[in-house]
TrEMBL record:
The active site is at residues 89, 152, 181. GO terms for molecular function: deoxyribose-phosphate aldolase activity. SMART domains: DeoC. It is found in: Cytoplasm. Its EC number is 4.1.2.4. It catalyses: 2-deoxy-D-ribose 5-phosphate = D-glyceraldehyde 3-phosphate + acetaldehyde. This is Deoxyribose-phosphate aldolase. HAMAP family: DeoC_type1 (MF_00114). Keywords: Cytoplasm, Lyase, Schiff base. Catalyzes a reversible aldol reaction between acetaldehyde and D-glyceraldehyde 3-phosphate to generate 2-deoxy-D-ribose 5-phosphate.
Length: 218
């Protein structure tokens, strides 16, 4: 198993500088990570830095709350794709899930998928720590019906991150036809391996180097 190819090498903190992002890109190339995941203002910069590599550019939309308008999410997606993003990690509207307004939730996701078109895949961040198991299950089904490629656990900016039981639940609901990305609090080889065993096939982390080096020496 090539763990490097499962990792979205991530920097989303608000104080991240261009120098930090440049370092992220260099590391992603060196370690052969699947992608770099950055805020949308850095997409164009990363696309230029990575144009001669196999590393993809991933960005977040509606981040970190998911409560911006659907039109805003679609516009942010269009701009990111135009700048060179190949993967879009959008935050689901947790408040609309809690309101049981499933039509809104489906339209919100579908609009981002439509905006991404055939230029980028869409991962939907559920923010599992804020949802009941029933809400997680229904949200996974909506994501599948809306054409998303992945469901994802967390932003890393809420009350908790990835948990094995949530990853297992998500994998059970979406089956083998969608990806499951675990993110939030994945900092050690042991945690990374636990997430993969639970059903994750992508890991979002800022600790990718430590994870890969740790697994290599086990």
């Amino acid at each position: 198993m090539d763990f490097s190819k499962m990792i979205d090498h991530t920097i989303l903190k608000p104080e991240a500088t261009k120098q930090d992002v440049e370092k992220l890109c260099r590391e992603a190339v060196e370690y052969g990570f699947h992608s770099v995941c950055v805020n949308s203002s850095f997409v164009y910069y990363c696309a230029k830095l990575l144009k001669d590599s196999d590393v993809k550019v991933c960005t977040v939309v509606g981040f970190p709350l998911g409560a911006m308008s659907t039109a805003g999410k679609a516009a942010e997606t269009l701009a990111a794709v135009e700048d060179g993003a190949e993967e879009i990690d959008m935050v689901i509207h947790v408040g609309m899930i809690k309101s049981r307004d499933w039509d809104y939730v489906k339209q919100d996701i579908s609009s981002v998928v439509e905006a991404a078109g055939d230029k980028a895949i869409v991962k939907v961040i559920l923010e599992t720590c804020l949802l009941t198991d029933d809400e997680k299950e229904y949200a996974c089904r909506i994501c599948r019906e809306s054409g998303a490629a992945f469901v994802k656990t967390s932003t890393g900016f809420s009350t908790d991150g990835a948990r094995e039981d949530d990853v297992a639940l998500m994998r059970r609901i979406v089956g083998s036809g969608m990806g499951v990305k675990a993110s939030g609090g994945i900092r050690s080889p042991e945690t990374a391996l636990d997430m993969v065993r639970a059903g994750a096939d992508r890991l979002g982390t800022s600790s990718g180097i430590a994870i890969v080096e740790g697994i290599k020496h086990e």
